[in-house]
UniProtKB/TrEMBL annotation:
InterPro entries for this protein: Sel1-like, Sel1_AlgK, TPR-like_helical_dom_sf, Znf_RING/FYVE/PHD
Protein name: RING-type domain-containing protein
Pfam families: Sel1
Taxonomy, superkingdom: Eukaryota
UniProt family annotation: Belongs to the sel-1 family.
Length: 348
């Protein structure tokens, strides 16, 4: 059965997963949504991770939901096939990356005009707020569904009696490294880019009882990048740029960063700034840093500050970057996250 969704509102945001007709879709909408010719199980996530579930059979679903409501739509076909058909998650995933080897060349114009907004993978799928950078410090990737859940929603889930299940997909937390690996492997088998990157990490660091195997890790990272994982493009960028474990290839490293930067990956943008700066292209470096600072990257803001102090950036540039950074930071805040920050700091 083909999943067809029609929205009459421009506010409806369809992520690439739905366009690829895989399994799950997250739609932000403010007005109405129409689902035709297909049965859906609809999960409404309202506010602090609370859930309402409804089965909608064919026809029409019209809603005027509250602001920031998320709608998750599972097609009947996918529900029947279950896990076998689980597709790529939204997490830092770039569709269309289908070639082996280095990513395609990005023109200078496209590089400077694209990727000024954080990729949707930086948004928590439960509270729908952008996650503060560095994401790894303020969220956790779940091995069961590959979703990046913010610390605020993790704490809220615990308070709602879900301390031992994933707040997104409700899978019980794995109790051993082997069980974690089994969950990851299941998603690797269906070509999930995030899971493929997680498995690569396990081989690289020798985690979860896996024997350390760096060539295998690099092979898996290459696959994760091919599948479109932006974090992996960044990581491979570093590996090739510095020649860590692979033959030094600065050009290929830069290509990985450019590929991720145009899709809204701030650390890749930051790395491009550093690359330009050390090659004497101060103005271009500052321009890259301006973009990533406005996405909430503190390292980039510090880069501009240093440029300003050395006379390579103007006061107006520094002021604009600072203002943009502060705005981005404000957008990541919520009372739930403040509470989580205090809680996780205390429990360290
Ligand atoms: Zn959240
Ligand atoms: Zn999960």
């Amino acid at each position: 059965m083909e999943t067809r969704i029609f929205s009459q509102e421009l506010d409806c945001h369809l992520t690439p997963i739905l366009k690829n007709k895989i399994r799950v879709e997250m739609i932000y909408f403010r007005n109405s949504l129409f689902c035709l010719g297909v049965t859906f199980r609809v999960h409404f996530y309202v506010g602090q991770g609370e859930k309402e579930e409804r089965v909608v059979t064919g026809g029409l679903l019209v809603g005027r939901p509250r602001r920031s409501l998320c709608l998750f739509v599972f097609s009947e076909e996918a529900m029947c096939r279950g896990e076998e058909k689980q597709g790529a998650p939204a997490t830092l995933h770039s569709p269309g990356a289908s070639t082996d080897g280095p990513p395609p060349i990005v023109t200078e114009e496209k590089l400077m005009n694209s990727g000024h907004e954080l990729h949707e993978g930086y948004t928590c799928p439960l509270c729908c707020l952008p996650i503060k950078l560095p994401v790894v410090k303020h969220s956790e990737v779940k091995p069961c569904c590959s979703k990046t859940v913010c610390n605020g929603c993790r704490l809220a889930a615990c308070k709602h009696g879900m301390a031992n299940t994933c707040p997104f997909c409700r899978t019980s937390f794995p109790e051993s490294g082997a069980a974690t690996l089994a969950l990851v492997q299941k998603r690797v088998d269906v070509k999930d880019p995030v899971a493929t990157a997680l498995l690569a990490d396990a081989y690289y660091y020798g985690d979860h009882g896996v024997q350390q195997d760096i060539p295998r890790a690099i092979e898996l990272w290459t696959e994760a990048a091919r599948l479109g994982d932006l974090n992996t493009h960044f990581k491979l960028g570093v590996i090739y740029y510095k020649g860590e474990g692979l033959e030094l290839d600065v050009g290929r490293g830069v290509r990985h960063w450019r590929h991720a930067a145009i899709q809204g990956h701030p650390l890749s943008r930051h790395s491009l700034a550093v690359h330009e700066y050390i090659n004497g292209n101060h103005e271009l470096g500052v321009q890259h840093w301006m973009i990533s600072a406005k996405m909430g990257c503190e390292r980039s803001l510090n880069g501009i500050k240093e440029m300003f102090m050395k006379g390579h950036a103007t006061k107006a540039q520094y002021t604009a970057a600072l203002k943009g950074y502060q705005t981005a930071l404000e957008e990541t805040k919520s009372p739930q996250r403040e509470e989580a920050r205090a809680f996780f700091n205390k429990s360290k």
